[in-house]
Amino acid sequence: MLNIYIAGAGSMGCRFGYQLTKANNTVTLLDEWEEHIAAIQSKGLSVTGEQEDNIDIPIMKPEEAEQPADLIILFTKAMQLSSMLQKLDHIMNEETKVVCLLNGLGHLEEIQKYVPRENILMGATIWTAQLESPGKVKLSGDGGIHLQSVEKSGESFGQELIQLFNEAGLNAEYDQDVWPSIWRKACVNGAMNATCALMDANINEVFSSSHGFTLIKKIIKEFVQVAEKEQVHLDADEIYDYVVSASKKVGEHYPSMHQDLIQNKRLTEIDYINGAIVKIAQKYDVETPYCEMMTELIHLKEDILL
């Protein structure tokens, strides 16, 4: 049985930790939020929403982990990725596999500074969750995972991991080219996350106005244009239809950037989502005014609130 660590016990880390633990895997959550750690250590992880449950699951700070890691699933915030990997160095060895399911773009370049490429798997997930308070996570909606080993030599383990995830009900697929899925997820986040945070609104509220539809279309168009320059082919209409369809299923959901900035007064991942598009676009002299404005507005909101 694999010894699994989940690095970053926010809403998604808790969701995956919960489902993997319920499927009889050995899972430890790693996080820096002391109140969250204390709550789970004393009362267990409380699960609400689509199901009501409470489970005992180990949680600690990353530097407190002792047992060697067979598998590390990265769910830390993008701006904390380098720091987290440094803190996990003492439990990683030449056999440790690392799965990245972070929001945003540009993470492989950072991970491979600490982990051999043949041990890295990149992926995207469309599961949702909301951390309501320390030790309490709300689960809602359906989701899935697309996953691929960075190097062909890692495909065998990737297939094993797909089976492990599916036994936990996480609806995983092995993908021979995962990058369109990663960019597509970044595009969905780029369209919805900053918008909901800036408007202090859930997904339904954004789509209650024609102006919301217009703004989402403009942002998606910029992501698709920049992706094409990077040889990643996305369908703007398909992504737009997906976002609209998803809003009908999880419309009451507040995306992670709203959870971070508005609810918990924390810095956001904007530089790895809309901000990443602005940075990549500059290489190709492509204009991305909507993504640039969203990035600046989120940073302004951070300065005001934090």
Kindly describe this structure:
By secondary structure, the protein is an alpha/beta fold. It is 46% helix and 17% strand. The chain has 12 helices and 12 strands. The chain has helices at residues 11-22, 34-43, 81-87, 107-111, 155-167, 179-199, 203-206, 210-229, 236-249, 256-263, 274-283, 289-305; strands at 3-7, 26-30, 45-49, 53-55, 59-60, 71-74, 97-100, 120-125, 128-133, 136-140, 145-149, 172-174. An 8-stranded mixed sheet has the order 5-2-1-6-7-8-11-12. A 4-stranded mixed sheet has the order 4-3-10-9. Strand 11, helix 5 (155-167) and strand 12 form a beta-alpha-beta unit. Helix 6 (179-199) packs antiparallel against helix 8 (210-229). The longest helix is centred in the middle third of the chain and has 21 residues, at 179-199. The radius of gyration is 18 Å and the shape is globular. The N and C termini lie far apart (43 Å). The mean pLDDT is 96.
